[in-house]
């Protein structure tokens, strides 16, 4: 049986990367960049004035001049003027510094009468003040964004500033979420006392969507090998990622591993030394489809989806791996099985900025209602059985 880190590594090694596609910048937020974004121009592209006021030659001020004849006005976007000797140009924030000027005196520090601007007594000006020098942020040709960046609104500003109308991003995979089980009845349909409401499908679709994978459809299949085989074959034709839940344990009606095998899906592993989610199965289909078969228990399905499916989809999208996050256990935890424990927690911050993980007891891995309000789960190593309060643990946010 694989450890959790071996399982993650096996998935990442087997997972084919997604294609790339060009999308309009307006719809690129949240997508994973697949190209470098390089500065189109110097930034700022010219010596940029950062205050409304007057532009002067500092030498005039230094030589004692405090009154300047207003030669002209230059606003942001106006062509660049040339300052005449001893005069000033009324200037606006965002304008390009007039030729011959090297000092801006803010409008609050001057009085203008007719064509004469007078600087307030005792005002101290300095050379180059209120000028944002050309290329001082970055030079033309600087790589501003690298492939593997999840595009944020701030990145959209960068992309737009480079004059780009489209960007190359990783294509969104077509995903099928498949709930298996005779007992499952979807919301909206009448239900018998011995049946179970289907909740994994909608929850996993929501989780995928929250992580930027919105192209997913759901199907419900009963535990009949022939039907499973036929319908899963159709899904393998139509999608590049299949996420099944249920039917992977050792019960008589757990047909999924056998059916996948018959469909030519190569098993990479079955079972991971973890709780919840020990029966998890992963394989690669004949056309490189990634097939995750998760246990049906709702806590197991959600933890496995977050722990294995989401990182695999992120990696296949080329996303830079995010740095690991840690939290301190707020109370002692004992966990005796020789398994890695994924323990759902709420997170609170201490006054000194520490993240404290408050364990949330789930009444078996079927108790999904207790997950509401949890931030995610901590990962407790399989070698240990007692984890003292204050122990630092790897935190995985939903
Ligand atoms: P299985 O992994 O098929 O043995 O299912 C384990 C438990 O999870 C059973 O109690 C199932 O009824 C329940 N279960 C399986 N799939 C779902 C689902 N999609 N929604 C809610 N419960 C489920
Ligand atoms: Mg089942």
Structural class: alpha/beta
Which topology of the largest domain does CATH recognise?
Molybdenum Cofactor Biosythetic Enzyme, Chain A
**CATH level-two architecture of the largest domain:** 3-Layer(aba) Sandwich
Which outline best applies? elongated
Q: Compute the gyration radius: what is it? A: 31 Å
Main beta-sheet annotation: 6 strands, mixed
Bound molecules: adenosine monophosphate, magnesium ion
What is the CATH superfamily of the largest domain?
MoaB/Mog-like domain
According to DSSP, the number of beta strands is 28
What share of residues is helical? Answer: 10-25%
The portion of residues forming beta strands comes to 25-35%
For the record, the CATH class of the largest domain is Alpha Beta
Distance between the termini: 25 Å
Can you offer a commentary on this structure?
- The structure is a single chain.
- The chain has 398 residues and is α/β, with parallel strands linked by helices.
- Helices cover 19% and strands 30% of the residues.
- It has 7 helices and 28 strands.
- The strands form 8 sheets. A 6-stranded mixed beta sheet has the order 7-4-6-5-9-8.
- α5 (225-238) crosses α6 (256-262).
- The chain starts with a helix and ends with a strand.
- The mean pLDDT is 97.
- It binds adenosine monophosphate (AMP) and magnesium ion (MG).
- Adenosine monophosphate (AMP) binds next to α4.
Helix/strand layout:
Elements: H1 4-14, E1 20-24, E2 37-38, E3 48-49, E4 53-56, H2 58-62, E5 67-74, E6 87-91, E7 103-106, E8 110-113, E9 116-119, E10 131-132, E11 143-145, H3 153-161, E12 166-170, E13 175-180, E14 184-185, E15 196-197, H4 200-210, E16 216-221, H5 225-238, E17 241-245, H6 256-262, E18 266-270, E19 274-275, E20 281-284, E21 290-294, H7 298-316, E22 325-329, E23 333-334, E24 340-349, E25 355-359, E26 376-380, E27 386-387, E28 392-397
Parallel strand pairs: 5-6, 13-16, 13-17, 14-15, 17-21, 19-24, 22-25
Antiparallel strand pairs: 1-12, 2-11, 3-10, 4-6, 4-7, 5-9, 8-9, 18-20, 20-21, 22-28, 23-27, 24-25, 24-26, 26-28
């Amino acid at each position: 049986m694989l450890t959790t880190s071996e399982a993650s590594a096996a998935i990442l090694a087997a997972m084919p990367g997604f294609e790339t596609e060009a999308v309009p910048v307006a719809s690129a937020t949240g997508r994973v960049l697949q190209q470098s974004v390089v500065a189109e121009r110097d930034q700022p592209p010219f010596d940029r004035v950062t205050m409304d006021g007057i532009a002067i030659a500092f030498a005039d001020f230094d030589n004692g001049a405090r009154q300047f004849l207003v030669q002209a006005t230059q606003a942001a976007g106006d062509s660049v003027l040339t300052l005449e000797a001893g005069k000033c140009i009324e200037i606006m924030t965002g304008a390009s510094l007039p030729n011959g000027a090297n000092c801006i005196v803010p409008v609050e520090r001057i009085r203008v009468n007719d064509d004469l601007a007078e600087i307030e007594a005792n005002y101290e000006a300095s050379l180059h003040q209120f000028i944002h020098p050309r290329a001082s942020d970055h030079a033309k040709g600087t790589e501003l964004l690298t492939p593997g960046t999840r595009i944020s609104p701030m990145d959209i500003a960068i992309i737009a500033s480079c004059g780009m109308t489209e960007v190359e991003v990783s294509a969104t995979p077509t995903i099928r979420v498949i709930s298996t089980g005779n007992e499952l009845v979807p919301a909206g349909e009448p239900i018998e006392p011995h049946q179970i409401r289907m909740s994994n499908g909608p929850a996993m679709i929501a989780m995928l969507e929250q992580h930027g994978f919105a192209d997913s459809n759901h199907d419900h299949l009963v535990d009949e090998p022939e039907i499973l085989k036929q319908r899963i074959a159709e899904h393998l034709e139509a999608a590049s990622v299949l996420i099944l839940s249920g039917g992977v344990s050792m019960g008589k009606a757990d047909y999924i591993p056998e059916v996948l095998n018959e469909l030519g899906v190569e098993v990479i592993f079955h079972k991971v030394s973890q709780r919840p989610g020990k029966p998890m199965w992963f394989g690669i289909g004949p056309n490189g489809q990634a097939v995750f078969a998760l246990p049906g228990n709702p806590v197991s399905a959600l933890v496995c989806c977050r722990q294995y499916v989401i990182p695999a989809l992120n990696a296949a999208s080329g996303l830079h791996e995010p740095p690991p996050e840690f939290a301190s256990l707020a109370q002692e935890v004992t966990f005796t099985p020789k398994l890695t424990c994924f323990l759902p927690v709420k997170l609170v911050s201490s006054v000194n900025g520490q993240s404290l993980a408050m364990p949330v007891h789930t009444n078996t891995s079927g108790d999904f209602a207790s997950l509401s309000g949890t931030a995610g789960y901590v990962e407790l190593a399989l070698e240990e059985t007692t984890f003292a309060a204050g122990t630092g643990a790897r935190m995985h946010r939903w």
